[in-house]
Design brief:
Largest sheet: 4 strands, antiparallel
Structural class: alpha+beta
Number of domains: 1
CATH class: Alpha Beta
Number of helices: 6
Helix content: 25-40%
CATH superfamily: Creatinase/methionine aminopeptidase superfamily
Radius of gyration: 18 Å
C-alpha cells in the first residue's frame, strides 16, 4: 500500500463510532425489503468479509497471539477501503471476535496465544459503501481431536441445512427447525441465548433469526430480505454465561462450542444468495475431511 494510504485509513476510523451509533439507532420493527442496489452492495461487503477470513487462514497457528490476528484483519479491511464494523460498536475495541474452545461468541482478542489443538471461531463484519458483510468461520490450530472435529462438522452441516430452508414462502421457524433437528440428532445442543439478525445498511436489524423452532412459525421469508444464519452449537448443554468483561460468552458446563455464519439474501426465484461465500472456496472448516 502507498505511504499515503494508512493516514487516510486512520481518518476513516475517526468516523466509525458515529457511523455505528447511527446504524444502531435506525433499527425498526419492520423487516426491510431490498432491491437490486442492496444486493449489489451486499455482494461487495460480503465478499470482502469472506476475503478477510481467507487471508487469516495461514496465520491461525500455535503460538500466534490473537491481537496479531485482529491487527491483520483491521489492516486488511482498511487497506481495501472499508471499515471494521465492530471497532467502536457499543464500546467494543477490536475488529474481530475470536472465540476459542468453550467460548461461544464475542471472544475478545488479547495477548494470549493460540495453542495446538484449539478450535477457534473468527467473526468479522465489514462496512463497504454503507453495507454490512458479516461472517464467521471455524479454524483448527494444528491437529484437532476427533470430538472437536465432530462438533465443527455438526455445526457446519447445521448451517448448510438452515440455508437450504431459505426460500420465499418458508418461515424463519423452518430455518431454526432444520438446524435444531440436525444438531440434536447428533447429540449436541443449539445455543438459545444468541441468534442471527437482519442486516444491510444497519448492522443488527430485524428480524432476530433463532436457530431452533417449529416449522411454519415466525415471519414469512420474502424476496429482498437480508439476514445472517449463524448457529452456535455446544458439545454439551446449551446454557451459556457472559463473563465480567460484558462480551465473552462461554458454555456453563465448559464444553466445546462452535459457530459458522453467513450473510444471505432471499431471491425471487426461490433460492438463497450467500453474500459471504469464500471466493476461493475455503469457507468449509479445513479441519473437516472432504
Amino acid at each position: 500500500m502507498s505511504p499515503a494510504g494508512r493516514p487516510a485509513a486512520r481518518n476513516r476510523l475517526m468516523t466509525l463510532t458515529d457511523h455505528n451509533d447511527l446504524t444502531f439507532q435506525t433499527r425498526t420493527r419492520d423487516i426491510k425489503i431490498h432491491g437490486p442496489e442492496g444486493f449489489e452492495g451486499m455482494r461487495k461487503a460480503g465478499r470482502l468479509a469472506a476475503e478477510c477470513l481467507d487471508m487469516l487462514i495461514p496465520h491461525v497457528l500455535p503460538g500466534v497471539q490473537t491481537l496479531d490476528l485482529d491487527r491483520l484483519a483491521r489492516e486488511f479491511v482498511l487497506d481495501h477501503g472499508a471499515l471494521p464494523a465492530c471497532l467502536g460498536y457499543k464500546g467494543y475495541g477490536h475488529t474481530v471476535c475470536i472465540s476459542r474452545n468453550h467460548v461461544v461468541c464475542h471472544g475478545i482478542p488479547g495477548d494470549w496465544a493460540l495453542r495446538e489443538g484449539d478450535v477457534v471461531n473468527i467473526d468479522v463484519t465489514v462496512i463497504v459503501d454503507g453495507w454490512h458483510g458479516d461472517t464467521s468461520r471455524m479454524y483448527g490450530v494444528g491437529p484437532v481431536n476427533a470430538r472437536a472435529r465432530r462438533l465443527v462438522d455438526v455445526t457446519y452441516r447445521g448451517l448448510e441445512l438452515g440455508l437450504a430452508a431459505v426460500k420465499p414462502g418458508a418461515t424463519f421457524g423452518d430455518i431454526g427447525h432444520a438446524i435444531q433437528t440436525h444438531v440434536e440428532s447428533q447429540r449436541c445442543s443449539v445455543v438459545r441465548d444468541f441468534c442471527g439478525h437482519g442486516l444491510g445498511r444497519v448492522f443488527h436489524d430485524e428480524p432476530n433469526v433463532v436457530h431452533f423452532g417449529r416449522p411454519g412459525t415466525g415471519p414469512l421469508l420474502k424476496p429482498g430480505m437480508f439476514f445472517t444464519v449463524e448457529p452456535m452449537v455446544n458439545l454439551g448443554k446449551p446454557q451459556v454465561k457472559v463473563l465480567s468483561d460484558g462480551w465473552t460468552a462461554v458454555t456453563r458446563d465448559k464444553s466445546l462450542s462452535a459457530q459458522c455464519e453467513h450473510s444471505v439474501g432471499v431471491l425471487e426465484d426461490g433460492m438463497v444468495e450467500v453474500f459471504t461465500a469464500s471466493p476461493t472456496g475455503q469457507f468449509k472448516p479445513p479441519i473437516l475431511a472432504d
